[in-house]
Amino acid sequence: MGTSELKKNRNSRSQQLNPNWAELQRKMKTHGSNPRKSSDSPNLEPFNSVLGKRKDRGDAESDGSQPNFLFPTNDDCSLTDVLAMDCEMVGVGERNKSALGRVTLVNKWGNVVYDEFARPMDRVVDFRTQISGIRPRDLKKAKDFRIVQKKVAEIIKGRILVGHALHNDFKVLLLNHPTKDIRDTSQYQFFVEEGRRKSLRHLASEFLGVSIQKGEHNPVEDARASMMLYLKNCKRWEKIIKNQIKLQKKKRKRKPKKKASQKDTSEVDPITES
Predict the structure, then answer these.
(1) N or C: which end of the chain has fewer CB within 10 A?
(2) pLDDT confidence of residue 32
């Protein structure tokens, strides 16, 4: 009985030590897996550095569900000669009129160069969160509309601007932009089918193989999708624009000649009283 009790004691001691060894092994495994996590982190650094505080607002890019090619391939946040813009609107006043709630600008690499919530001049009656993704807390510390408007005007001046249905964005921004510098994916002739304009969501799915705007719209994601659509078609698109500009110049040159000829004929054949 004594030997059997000793064996039991030894077994019990070994059983008491086993959990400790298991715990140590678990820690070693988790410690050994840390380098794997760190090896993945460089891929996320450009994204974090680009969006900064915007990532904390719950943008859809952080869920990792979107294709990688919509993410920036570098961390270059410079102002390129081509920019893409997207705005989200809220409803203000008694008529629930659209007003700027957020505006985002990305460069040709897809990196964010400007992204701000804007506090409308009128009282907000509908945040339109289901589409805009804007909540009351977002506008509490938002910048005044006039400040955002001025900054956007400064950034886009002299640059090609890409976007989808940009006339809606310009309307809430109370801004204009030269027609020759606008690249609207809703109006590009190869994106229009039988006179019907397609939504950005449809174009992204058809030409990029990307699913966007599943729920709340993400202006960063939408601006990047517009930019990708433009870059994939920029050579043919720019050729069309050049041809249009040439035709407009020819028409302008012809108009003064017609007016001059009309004046000459009126002077040659004056109306005489009988």
Answers:
(1) C
(2) 46
In a domain, 175, yes or no: yes
Q: How many domains does the chain have?
A: 1
State the DSSP string of 48-63: HHHHGGGGGGT-GGGG
Helix (H) / strand (E) element for 124: namely strand 124-126
* Residue 145 included in any domain: yes
Tokens 């930019």 belong to which residue? 227
- pLDDT computed for residue 145 by the predictor: 97
User: What is the domain-level CATH number for residue 100?
Assistant: 3.30.420.10
CB 133 within 8 A of CB 216: yes
Residue 202: inside a domain: yes
pTM for the whole structure: 0.67
Give me the pLDDT at residue 133, please: 92
> Alpha-carbon distance 226 to 183, whole Å?
9
Q: Are 173 and 103 in contact (CB under 8 A)?
A: yes
pLDDT at 255: 64
Domain holding 95, by residue range, is 50-248
Q: Which residues contact 222 (CB under 8 A, 6 or more apart)?
A: 86, 104, 164, 200, 212, 213
The SS3 call for residue 114 is strand
Cβ 209 vs Cβ 136: under 8 Å: no
The pLDDT tens digits of the residues spanning 112-126 come to 999 999 999 999 999
The low-confidence residues of the chain, meaning pLDDT below 70, are 1-69, 194, 255-274
Strand partners, 161: 83, 182
Domain-embedded: residue 171: yes
Q: Which residues 6+ apart lie within 8 Å of 109 measured at CB?
A: 72, 73, 74, 76, 80
pLDDT at 230: 95
- Nearest partner of 116 among 126, 132, 105, 129, judged by Cα: 105
